Amino acid sequence: MMKHNSENCRSNCPINFVLETFGDKWTLLIIRDLMFKRKKHYGEFLQSDENIATNILASRLRRLEDHGVITRSADPANAAKRLYNLTAKGKGLLPIMLEINAWSAKHDTLTNTPEEFSRRLKVDKEAVIAEVLSALD
User: Fold this and answer.
1) Are 19 and 64 within one domain?
2) Residue 3 falls within a domain, yes or no?
3) Taking CA 37 as the corner, what is the angle to CA 73 and CA 63, rounded to the nearest 5 degrees?
4) Are residues 18 and 44 in the same domain?
5) What is this structure's pTM?
6) Considering 63, 87, 111, which residue would you say is the last residue of a domain?
7) What is the pLDDT of residues 72-112, one digit of tens each?
8) Is 25 left (phi over 0), alpha (psi -120 to 50) or beta?
């Protein structure tokens, strides 16, 4: 796997690096599903409310794998299926994803973020981080 850095990006700006890595809504939604909804199979991602197209899903999963954010492996329970998991690099996105969640909960009156989750995030973000990371292992 090629080292993922800003060498092949338009600039070395950290914001640009993130945008060129994730670049669209689908990629962060896949990370959300892996991180918070515990989805691991291709078909599970297709069942998300946002209705991602199969070609887009395949492309974004491949990009995330190429960038070292996720891994793909054979499912020991079913050889025909593949499991997708966050790498340490992918898990490192957790604080950012939580901040996006908190910002959205604050500014979107129709958010589906559970109130209890938002409250816990405000009170003890480190505990929420530890809990989510523990569930990912």
Assistant:
1) yes
2) no
3) 45
4) yes
5) 0.86
6) 87
7) 999 999 989 999 999 999 999 999 999 999 988 888 888 88
8) alpha
